[in-house]
Design a protein that fits this description.
This protein is mainly α. Helices cover 74% and strands 2% of the residues. A two-stranded parallel ribbon has the order 1-4. It has a two-stranded antiparallel ribbon with strand order 2-3. Keywords: Membrane, Transmembrane, Transmembrane helix.
Length: 423
């Protein structure tokens, strides 16, 4: 299994760097609009590489790696933000593919090496570090209510929250549900999340607009849509690799599903990945149609396919089919978004809500992890790191500061242990 994981990681990293070098797909949403400037000759590769490095490097170090260290599953940002840099910087597609493959393997092996290194420390804080994700499961289900509040006002947001909470507690009360000799335990947070997403989409779909065929997004950028469709085969292969990697426990697409998968809650991780995918449809579809450049994970539904699949081969097939359908239906999705501007706007509010909820959940998780490493002292250190980060102008963004503070707490506790100031 370890060999298979390394092979998939290598193929995934190599193909992602290849796609970035060719201008077919990049992971960073902010980088995607710059690719047409390069492809159409208004930006040279050096300028593209420098911009890519500026956009991606900080996120690899300050976001991808810290989250990956909270479990033995790699946050996909660690892989694909780096392959964006490798691909856009490489003068040759095969060099890019080779370096991308090497990065995929190095990251997979290196993460395990770090885990082994932690075991040699005077205070092994790795188990406590895993508690960073402990509040995520419960807190994440709140984001649809916040998205509704941001889009439609706090009253509708409060109604959404109330119905979510009611659904959650009904599930808690009726569990387990008996079917003859068999019993089923419904997931309370998952149920609340589903109810919230349904309400969010119902509210969003009520906003409609009349758009003529010639003025639609797909019509305006029809040549760029066709460019993506011409690359549907290689993009489908990329989707297969990502879904297989998720199924094999190599990667996860976001901190929520990573934390859930690390705890063994694979179905919950799949539900979280599915909800996140819905939120990313408007962003990915709109930027893809406007730029002619896709993303290596598509609309992110490939992660849900990986988590829900019983075997990595099934996951790979589903991942390929999902990306194929996404690409071939791009113009249909674009016309739908033009027809329902509320759904397009909902995507932005969903991402904002997810970020805000995660900021709070991961900050609380960082405090819990810090206290697990050193009762009392951990709270003190994490709080100090967080407020000093704010005072310094957020060199580490709020989403990553919880995990980063927990890691720094573990390092400081070990230093104090060596100095005999901690027992």
């Amino acid at each position: 299994m370890e060999t298979l994981q390394l092979v998939v990681a290598a193929l995934m990293g190599g193909l992602a760097a290849f796609l970035a070098q060719q201008g077919i797909a990049v992971f960073n949403d902010g980088l995607r609009p710059l690719l047409p400037e390069f492809l159409e000759g208004r930006m040279n590769r050096r300028e593209l590489a420098l911009t890519s490095f500026a956009l991606c490097f900080g996120l690899v170090i300050g976001f991808g790696i810290p989250f990956s260290l909270t479990s033995q599953i790699i946050l996909i940002h660690s892989v694909f933000l780096a392959t964006d840099i490798i691909g856009t910087s490489s003068p040759n597609k095969w060099l890019a593919a080779g370096l991308g493959a090497a990065w995929g393997v190095l990251l997979t092996i290196g993460l395990q090496a770090l885990v082994d290194l932690f075991a040699l420390l005077p205070v092994n804080f790795l188990d406590a570090l895993g508690q960073v994700s402990s509040p995520i499961t419960a807190a994440f289900a709140v984001f649809p209510a916040l998205a509704v509040a941001l889009h439609h006002g706090w009253k509708k947001g409060a109604i959404t929250f109330a119905l979510q909470m009611l659904a959650r507690q009904i599930v808690v009360r009726v569990n387990p549900i008996q079917f003859g000799t068999a019993s089923i335990n419904l997931n309370a947070e998952g149920t609340a999340l589903v109810i919230g997403m349904i309400l969010l989409l119902v509210f969003a779909a009520r906003e409609k607009a009349e758009v003529t065929a010639d003025a639609s997004l797909a019509a305006v950028f029809s040549d760029r849509v066709q460019r993506i469709k011409k690359n549907v085969l290689v993009l489908s292969i990329m989707g297969a690799l990502v879904a297989a990697a998720a199924n094999l426990g190599v990667v996860a697409g976001d901190p929520i599903s990573l934390g859930l998968a690390a705890e063994g809650n694979i179905v919950d991780a799949g539900i979280a990945a599915l909800a996140r995918g819905i939120g990313f449809v408007p962003l990915v579809a709109t930027t893809a149609v406007a730029t002619g450049v896709y993303g290596p994970v598509g609309m992110t539904f490939v992660f849900a396919a990986g988590f829900f699949s019983p075997h990595w081969i099934v996951a790979a097939i589903l991942g390929a089919v999902i990306v194929f359908l996404e690409v071939m239906l791009l113009d249909v999705i674009a016309r739908f978004l033009d027809r329902f501007p509320g759904v397009r706007a909902a995507g932005e509010h969903i991402r904002t809500a997810m970020t805000k909820v995660l900021e709070i959940a991961l900050l609380v998780g960082g405090m819990i992890a810090g206290n697990a490493m050193a009762p009392g002292l951990g709270y003190f250190i994490v709080a100090a790191i967080v407020v000093l980060n704010e005072a310094a102008g957020l060199p580490v963004n709020r989403l990553a500061i919880g995990p980063v503070a927990a890691i720094l707490t573990g390092i400081l506790v070990n230093i104090l242990k060596v100095l005999t100031l901690f027992s």
